Amino acid sequence: MNIVCLDMEGVLVPEIWIAFAEASGIPELKRTTRDEPDYDKLMRWRLGILKEHGLGLKEIQATIAKIDPLPGAKAFLDELRSMTQVIILSDTFEEFAKPLMEKLGWPTIFCNSLEVAPDGEITGFKMRCQQSKLTTVKALQSIGYETIASGDSYNDLGMIQASKAGFLFKSTEKIKADHPELPAYEEFGDLLAAIKAAL
Length: 199
What we know:
The chain has nine helices and seven strands; from the N terminus they run βααααβαββαβαβαβα. The chain is an alpha/beta fold. It has a domain at 2-12 and 70-112 and 128-198: HAD superfamily/HAD-like (Rossmann fold), CATH 3.40.50. It has a seven-stranded mixed beta sheet, with helices on both faces. Helix 8 (173-178) links the parallel strand 6 and strand 7 (184-185). Helix 4 (73-83) packs parallel to helix 9. The mean pLDDT is 96.
C-alpha cells in the first residue's frame, strides 16, 4: 500500500507569504521555510510584522483569493490521485488553505490552524503536532503504508528522507547542493514519472 505525501506551497501553489509580501509591500515577509529551517521562529517573526503593520487574517485571505495553483499542478494532482492515495502535508493553516484546495479539486490536506482574535488579528498558531510532516509520514508507515514524498523546503526533508522514495521539487540551489542524494525535479511531468516508477 502506497501513499504519496506532497508539500503544498512552492510545489502545488505559489508561496502564500511571498504573494502577501508583494501585495502588502512588506518585503521582509518574503522569508519562507526555504530560508529559515526553524518554523516556530519564522511564524513568530511573521506575526510580529503583521502586528506592527496592523494586518490580520482578512488581508491575507484577500491575497490568497487571487492565488492560482502553479501551471500544471491540478492536472498533475488529478493524474496522481487516479493512481494512488495522496495527502498534502503542509505547515500552512486551515484558514489559508481552503480556497486553494477548492482550486485543486479538494485533495486531502493535513495542516495547522491559526488563533485569531475577534478583530481578525492573528494572535498565535497551533501546530497539529511536532515536526508535523515527518511525524505524519511515520504514523502512516506504522499503519501499513509505504510513503513516497516530495517537497521544496527544509521542513520537507524529514518526510522525504524517511520515505521509501523521496524527491525535491522546485527547490533551492542550496538545498539541492546540500542533499545531492535526493533526486531533484523542476517539471510536473518529471516528478510524476519518478513517483510512478516508485509505486
